[in-house]
Amino acid sequence: MNKFRRGFTLIELLVAVTIFGVLVSGSLVYINRFNSRQKLNAVREEIVAYLRMARDYAISLQNPDGDDLTYVKVDFEDGLMKAWPNGVGSTYFAKEVTPAGVAVSMDSDLLFSAYEGKVMMLEGTDLVPVDIGETVTISVAMEGDLSSSTTIKISASGLIN
Known about the structure:
By secondary structure, this protein is an alpha+beta fold. Helices cover about 30% and strands about 35% of the residues.
């Protein structure tokens, strides 16, 4: 009797489907991590561009209110990045920089001095330069995932990394 086997056995099909499922789930995890990194990098680059713009406003002494410019203040509130002259009055810009799922936090106030663009801090009403070697750090992270984060450091001289 000559019987030819046609098709696959149930065991062979189950093994093939299981291997396919493992490969697909592993690739989905990789794709999700890749998307998270891309989103963080895009937010980081956007923030760096706006920080450079704020520092350039300070260096070029541009003030929409027409008053003397002492410094440009940069702040984050609820995902909104704002920069304004002397910390009061009209803003240079107020931009939404954090898409859903991304959180931004800054460790201290960020003030760029007029003329030089150096990082300053307010002590009472006095504007004091930040000590050499100190930095202002801005953290950009995925909400709920502390392993996915990046930082932006602004040195005392105003250099943005």
